[in-house]
Amino acid sequence: MNNPDLNLAPESRTPATPAAPAPLYLRRSGTALLLDFRTGEPALLHFGADLGPELPDLSLLTDPVPHSALDVPVTLGLVPQASSGWRGRPGLRGHRGGTAFSPRLRLVSVDADPGDGASAVLTQTDPDVGITVRTELRLNDGGLLQLRHTLVNDGGSPYTVEELAAVLPVGRAAAEVLDLTGRWCRESHPQRLPLQQGTWVRSGRHGRTGHDASLLLAAGTPGFGYRHGQVWAVHLGWSGNHESFVDTTGDGRTVIGASELLGSAEVTLAPGESYETPWLFAAYSDEGLDGITAAFYAWFRARPHHPTAGKPRPVVLNVWEAVYFDHRLPALLDLAATAAALGVERYVLDDGWFRGRRNDTAGLGDWYVDEDLWPDGLTPLIDAVTGHGMEFGLWVEPEMVNEDSDLARAHPDWIAGPATGAAGGPASAGRLPERWRHQQVLDLVNPDAWQYIYDRLDALLSENRISYLKWDQNRDLTEMGHDGRPSVHAQTRAVYRLLDALREAHPDVEIESCSSGGARVDLGILERTDRVWGSDCNDALERQTIQRWTGMVVPPELVGSHIGPTRSHTTARTHDLSFRAVTAMFGHFGLEWDIRHLEPAERNELAGAIALFKEYRGLLHSGRMVRADEPDPALRLHGVVAHDGGEALFALVSVATSFAEIPGRVCLPGLDPDTRYRVEAVYPAATDRGAYLQTAPPGWLAGGVEATGRFLAGSGLPMPVLNPEHGVLLSVRRAGGGAPHSGTPVRNS
What we know:
It contains 11 helices and 40 strands. It is of the alpha+beta class. The protein folds into 3 domains: 10-302, alpha-galactosidase from lactobacil brevis (Beta-galactosidase, Chain A, domain 5), CATH 2.70.98; 360-376 and 399-519, TIM Barrel (Alpha-Beta Barrel); 625-734, Immunoglobulin-like. Helix 6 packs parallel to helix 7 (488-505).
């Protein structure tokens, strides 16, 4: 048995007996996880606030034994199991041909890292059932916990895994559940419900993460908000079928967790084979949801391959809403010249460049530059784009195939489907899934199909100066099958292998994950991509909610956020440029708009907004995200504060008409209370009649004001009366320290 002690002062360690190693106590950044081994299995005693360096004698803290129950206290194990009396959702469901259905896992080793004090590997086994489960635990700087299991079939016959879940205990103070749901063009919207006895389950059966996926599942104290309350939250880093749940049993204990949602016999292990679960990411905060966000952001930004580690995030132009499928070189060259003059740094050619692709009904799978459209290849456009000092990016959708394509005609057996066809023939001989956007799923579990896609993408990246791939995936994996068996798990792993192989071969190429907008936003895909497309909707009003809640987990530098046309093509709403720009500012900023024919005033304003983003992107993509618990539902306040408290950028946004004539004093939270700040409105101008509805603005709006962080958070500032669907950017800088940015406020006409 390896030494399991972690981060315990010698005088505080619970004495170990030969049969019971000392408890495992992980502590970091105000969060702690405590497991006890006295019953022979890892018992989850605590996940939440740091309990300090000393622990009491845990042998005295046994639960009582009630009437009409087991004769011993019920253990909540790291893998909850009926053999220990757990009556809630089991952690492991599996069998060996219908037998060996109830495991009795017991601890055999604890391998703790004494160097970092916050990671360990625990091994449990059941020799009768013939399985071993190894659990990895990592408590990262910032307080984000990672947990995953690996199950090994030690027996002599196949073992079918139906579910292997990762769970954590939730404190008794939790009384509400919050998660996210949505649909296409309306992703990441919150919903709340009271925490009651029973199980709240969110299932995703899309074969991808899903527009309605609960990016974050949280339980917390009554009325918990952005800046207050205790919160326990989890996210499953997986891009296939999944379930997340909160389970409260009759004895009053609550667990929160998630698992991959496996199809019938989808994972059946031969002797010696293993199954590894996705990572469960979990965080605890006693300062509301902003504390949960801080833990996730710290994890993302500590990664050595995080995209901001090498350079600032470039301003993007994606040409989709400018030209759609109309790929004519003169227009595309004009767009490139216009974009460069405005300050764009990355130019992305979207759908329509490859063979047979004149609309969305044909061509997917034929990843060759269309010789009719591009007789000289992509080189003339790439040379023009890079000649303007911009990077060149390209759209692809490698996981899909149109039935009207050379690939499908040559290899119908590469189309994924539910049947093996007559007498075990190819899937094409049987029934295919219903079409979705005129396309089917390419079976990347098939090694020949995988190799074809890899070779085509590798050739494109090797033969062209491409710095960026917009990697799309535009349908659910309904009836996903390989050789007549469900294969969402295997397809997801195959996509991961494809991305990993391409990144290894082309390490300087960035990849965006797009999936009908925000249908594949998770930490599994973000382990191997550089940003996600939060939604196909560029309507700034819709984006205010989508980006706010996507940003609960994913930092703004990883969420594409573009200024769309004045009239949104997904909602038909019209918005002033200032509102669209203020919204796009808090993300990976870009444009998706035909910018060739702007009026001079609009062109100047857009250039000013791009310059403003460049001035603040270092702050926006490194600081602490702050969201105010604003009492007026018509107003929203969010911002980013530098970690040293020296500067911040806030956005006050009006999403509807307010019940009050004036907004009153609005507080700016998250600043250093003893620092004196200068607050200025930087965009739009105080004289903008489109943004404001007032006879006279508050006195400070035109020239700024100085106040302490304590005053700004406690009393706040009187704010202007914003028209609905407008916003204002507020720059906050430490007074007397010199301006960190050299730019001037954007003045829009």
